[in-house]
Amino acid sequence: MAIGRSEIDLLRRAGVLPATGYARAMALVRDGGSWARWARHALLALGVGHLLSGIVFFFAYNWAALPAIAKFALLEAGILAAAGVALWRGADRPEGASALIAATLLVGVLLAVIGQVYPSGAEPWQLFGLWAALALPWTIASRNAAHWLVWLVVLHIAAGLYADQVLVARGRLTVLGAVTCVSLLSLAALVARELLVHRGQMWAAARWTRLVPAIVGLGGLALGAGLFLLDGSGGTDLAAPVAFGAAAAALGTFYREKRPDLAVLAAVTGFAVLLLIAAAARVVADRIGFEETETALLSLAVLVFWSVAIVAGAARLLERLRRTMPADSDG
Known about the structure:
mainly alpha, 12 helices
């Protein structure tokens, strides 16, 4: 039986292969062709990144000296050139996908230039929303996870700015409610990722495409829930801890039973531990307090004991999960 990277990953997740031997085993199965493909993709990513950085710094340094027509001409020529490369090489190939990522970023720069040359009074969230809308067709065409990550970053910025500048400013949402809503957007992206992989779209199956939205979404919900616990905010802010509890339960069940993934379970457990410590800090502050030296020392001792106990319990839980989870995740 031939052993490749997927088989080594299965052995590692099953606990058969120790961590010390994982890197050595992966090095053994990587042949010259694998390293050549990795080098081409890495150099392509570095080249595109340096090219886009050079364009941004060029405009920043020569901004005052450039006439408006030159600014627009250079950016639009760059967008057309990137789109042309994508058509030539194929939008779903690495070169074409990288060109479309460059075109997506240049669209954002172009919108910024338009806003500065012709002030329209548009809010920042409108510019980012328009950026996301204009770049969406290219993102779909590229079938590239990195391109989707760039697009989701733009979409999250647009959603966050809209929540802050419109919903929070008009009293329709609190700050914690806005954090909760934007965090749920990340979890919606995670759900979309799982549906795509389930339907055989393996371009979205890289491990990081699961971990990034899971950690960002859970982290945002945990932040909102932690602020609620520490500040004791009432009213609709109760949605933050409720949303975190529901999301943690759903992700914990799904990635334990349906798509075993210890990394996501570790993220769920870690954020839950932080919230339990925050809840303990709130209880200790209310019941014992930190005002006097004696009570402060007692409160600190209780928190240290509770933190050590809860972290030790979480470590034992994760170790038990590692030993009992099936190693049949799609990665």
